[in-house]
Every structure is written in C-alpha cells, then in structure tokens.
Amino acid sequence: MIRIIIGIVALIIAMPVQAEWRIAESPRFQVYSELTEDELRTFTIELEQFDRLLRLYTNTTAEPAELKVRIFMVDNQDAVERYIGQSGVAGFYVGSVNGPIAVIPEDQVGFGFDTMSPRNILFHEYTHHFMLQYFSAAYPAWYIEGFAEYFATVRFREDGRAEVGHPPTYRTRSFQYGTWVSTERMLSNEIENDHMTYAQGWLITHLGATDPEVRAMLGDYLGRLRNGESGREAYAASFGEWNRSFNRVLQQYLLRNRFVASAIELDPLPDNAVSITPISDEQAAIALLAPRSTGRMGYAVRRAIEYYPSNPQGHVELALDHLADDEYDEAMAAVDHALALQSNHVEANIAKGDILLAMAEAADDPQSPYWEQSREFIIRANNANPNSPSALASYYSSFPSRASRPDSAVAALERAFVLVRQNPGIRLMLAEEYLAQDRYVEAANIAGPLAQNPHGGGAAARARAIVEAARAGEQGESDN
Length: 480
Known about the structure:
Helix content is 56%, strand content 9%. It is built from 21 helices and nine strands. α1 links the parallel β2 and β3. The protein is globular. 44% of the residues are buried. The N terminus is likely disordered.
C-alpha cells in the first residue's frame, strides 16, 4: 500500500509513493508489492509452486486459466478492510468481471495462536480460485472452507518439497471456545457459515486425507451432492450405516492432536519464470485503484485525478462511482473526460457502454436508443481487447430481450465465462441463459457452485432457484 504518514493513514493510495513499488510477473500471477526484489521473487515463486502443488494433489492436467490472478500486497489489515468496506477481513479474493483479484496485508494479522501470515491468507483464497476454475461443483460450505484451510498452512522447504497438513493454529480458539457442531448437522448443511465451518471443515478434510475409510465415505458423500441429493440424504447414505460414530471419531482425532503433514516433492521452476519490474508512482497509484469495491475509497480516486489528471483510468474510476449511485450525468461527464484523453481506452469504452446500458434499463423501454448506443462503445472496447470479459459480458447485456439477442451475444457470454469462471454475475447470467434454452443440466452445473457458496449472499439464493428450476425442468422432460 502506498505509505503516507498522516493520522490514521486514511490516504493510502493515489499520492506519490515513498517506497518503491514493483510488479512480479509469472505464468499465473501478477503481484504488486513494496517488498524488496528478492522477497518479492521468493513470494511469487512460492505462489507458482503452490499452484503446482494443487495440480499434483488433485491430478489436474487442464491448461492454466488465461487471465492471471492479480495480487495486491497492502500495508496491513486496516488497509484491506478499507478496500472491501468490511471490518474483520484479513484478506480477500474476488472473481472480478475484469479478472481475479486478491488483496492481502504485507504484515501478519493477529497475535499468538491467532496469527495468520499473508501466505496463509493468500493460499486459502487461491485454493477457492483453483476449485472454481478446475473443480466447479456444488460443494458444501464446510468443504469449500475446510479444503482451503487444509492447504493454507503449506510450508515450502529448501529441498523443494512442500509440507501439507499442518494444523491452522489460528483456529485453536474456535475449537477451545466455539460450540461444536455435530457432524450430522455439519454435513447436512444445516448451519450458517461461521468460524466452526472453517475449523471443523479443516478437521474433516484432514481426517479424510489420512484415513482411507473416511476418504472413501467423503468421496461418496460429495458425489451424491453433485448428483443432486440433499446434504441430509447424502450424509445418511454415506455415513449412516457406519459402525462407528463419525462425530465421536472426529472429536477423538482432534483430542489426539497428532496431525501428520505430508511432504510432496515439486519440480523447480525455470530460472526465468519470474520477472520483477519497478513501476512509477503514477502506475502504482492507478493500479491500486483496481481492487477497491466500487464506491469505496472515493478519496483515493479524487487524489489520483488531482495528481495524475492526464491518466484516463482515474476518470473511469470516478465515472464508475457515479454510476453506482445512479448519477448518470456525472458519470457520463467523467467517462467522456477519460475518452477525450484516450479514445480507444478499453475500460473507458466499457464504462461508457455500461452507463448507457444503465440509462436504457432505467428508461424501461426496449426501443430506447441507448441500447444500440451502448453497443457501439462495447464493441470498440472488444476490438481493442478481445479478451476483456467485462466487454464480452456487457455486449450480451446490451440486448434487451432474448428475442433480440443474436447467437453472437450468447457466444460472447460463454467466452466471458471461460475467462472468469469465478465471477458470480457472469456465471448466473449464463446459467439463466441455458435455463431459458432448456439446457437444464448445463444450467444446474453452472449455477451449482454458487448455490453452496459460503459467502454468496443474494447470488447464492439466485443460484439455488436456478438449480431447482433446472432440476424441475429436467424431471419434466424425463416424465414426458
């Protein structure tokens, strides 16, 4: 995070930086940080090795995602919270419509047993990303979090091996003072996601990794969930006839406190796998606007425009803030300023198209000229960057109805989904499109992962409705 020593460090970006910012580029990552060159190189190499570890552990042979994960290392947890607008957040990952982004603190979070390192946070979040990219299925919340916690504590050794399975000591208090949730309730998905989901989810995952009998039952359980059984049905079928109480076995496993870590050998990266490039104050200030939630840190946007008035991205960010507040005139003025500075600026053209789309939707008129006008700018952005998922998704949205939507629009949305499988908006749009086309299995498969997302909110409820409608449609076809 750009360090500005004033008060509560409120103005954390957009002013000239005092430490040198660098970008580390590797095959799968782009890391923005003020770490030294050696520290940043080591950190990025570990990220690449972590991806290799997940691939090896899960037997993943699929090609890497086309868009790199952008990672921003900011000063501390306070800075992280300002980006997302929530307290108590140590780090976060979002499947942004412009590509996956993660924000983590440069410093450790917490004290004593509660301490979490930046690596713990990032490895947890990247595991979520990996699952959505390569194993997109309707996994329950406890497994999503437990699987991520299992890998969050990985340790990389100098001999090239990675140790997996170390306990997350920062979950100790959950086990000490939290209310134990019975395995029947946990695996029936009958509880809200909370700290026990993480703690007991990790414990179940760890036991499954070390006990072949439990591993087999968990595999059967997860398979039943993927096939549409409820959590209670899947639990009863997979664990109900077990001659031991899973709940008692799990508690005994915890009390024994002998958690074995496995050492996995990884091939070294090529010497040229990571490149480090210093960036200017302006580049850093503008780049650090990317991970903020729209409407957050408006002071940073204003400072960016004040210090770098000729950079179009600052004006684009201002336009997006106005758009979020339905201030169309102000949004249009800001984006037009950006386009006057650079007419082929990708994000500026997308923003202009999205403003016109919002105006068309507000007019509630399928004949509004705003629909076609928006498309002109979106197409311009797509021509400048054919791999912009934001432009592809906006092109799909620029047609007011399915009747008016050409096949090319659906193809654009499908391409956007390939680029950012982690984005909930694009995932839901495509699922609803397939549902409307009576492609029930595909609709359910695409919406399913969101239906169980522990942080899904309204998107999760919408996804569950799609899955239910798809299964009802599939059943109707079967009956006919």
